[in-house]
Each structure stands twice: as C-alpha cells, then as structure tokens.
C-alpha cells in the first residue's frame, strides 16, 4: 500500500504531460503578446506612411486595435493547434510547422481578393506574415523542447 512506485507512475505521467502543456501555453502566450505588439506597431507604421486600410464596398478602415485583436485570436488558435499536436501527434513539430505554414498561406488569399488599393493589399499581406514569423518559430521551438 505504501509503495511509492505504484502511486508515482500514473501521477508522474499526468504531471509530465501537464507540465509540457503548461510550458507550451506559457511560451505561446508570451509569443502571442509579442506578435500582437509587432503587428500593431507595423500597422501603425504603415498607417503613418499613408496606408489607409480601407476595404472597398462599404467597408470601414481597419482600426489599429483590430489588428491586435485578430492577431491575438489567431495566435491563441495556433497555441491550441500546437497543444493538440503535442498531445496526439507522433511528430508534433513537423506537423505543426506544416499546418501553420499552410494556414498562413491560406490567410494571404483574402487581402488579394479584397479589392483594396495596392498599398493596402501589400500592407495587409505583410501584416499577415509578421505574426507568423513570431508565432511559428516560437511554438516550433517550444514543441521541440517538449518532445526531446
């Protein structure tokens, strides 16, 4: 009854898994905040350079806060995908990078179809790549550290 090996095995497995997920989530949230700041700053710089971020067909200009909110939302979705792959994939790093790059490529389509002017489309394309360059490497490194 007092054999510590019997009690420690299931608990240590859960603790190890929980520790890996918490570490990934912590790294991901820090990266998400960095991505939000970087994207909002890049949007502010583009706006200062004359990009209006106005989408045709009755659309209003995208506010700077909108860039932060959307970046934060999709960064958290990236963390969720990374956590799911850490839990259920035999090769989470490879699968995450492939998935994240595919989703980033798909995210480039709407700006191209928006009908906005060239400056706005170019800025929006760049603003899709800014958080990707922050989040994908950070989460891939974190996954790698937790699977080695």
End-to-end Cα distance: 34 Å
Structure classification: mainly alpha
- The radius of gyration is 20 Å
Number of DSSP E strands:
0
Mean of all residue-level pLDDT scores? 90
Put simply, the count of helices is 5
Main pleated sheet: none
Could you walk me through the main structural features you see in this protein, from its secondary elements to its overall organization?
The structure is a single chain. The protein has helices at 4-48, 64-88, 92-107, 109-113, 118-147. By secondary structure, it is an all-alpha fold. 82% of the residues lie in helices and 0% in strands.
Question: Which features characterize this protein?
Answer:
148 residues; mainly alpha; 0% strand
Map the helices and strands.
Layout: H1 4-48, H2 64-88, H3 92-107, H4 109-113, H5 118-147
Helix pairs in contact: 1-2, 1-5, 2-3, 2-5, 3-5
Short synopsis of the structure:
The protein is mainly α.
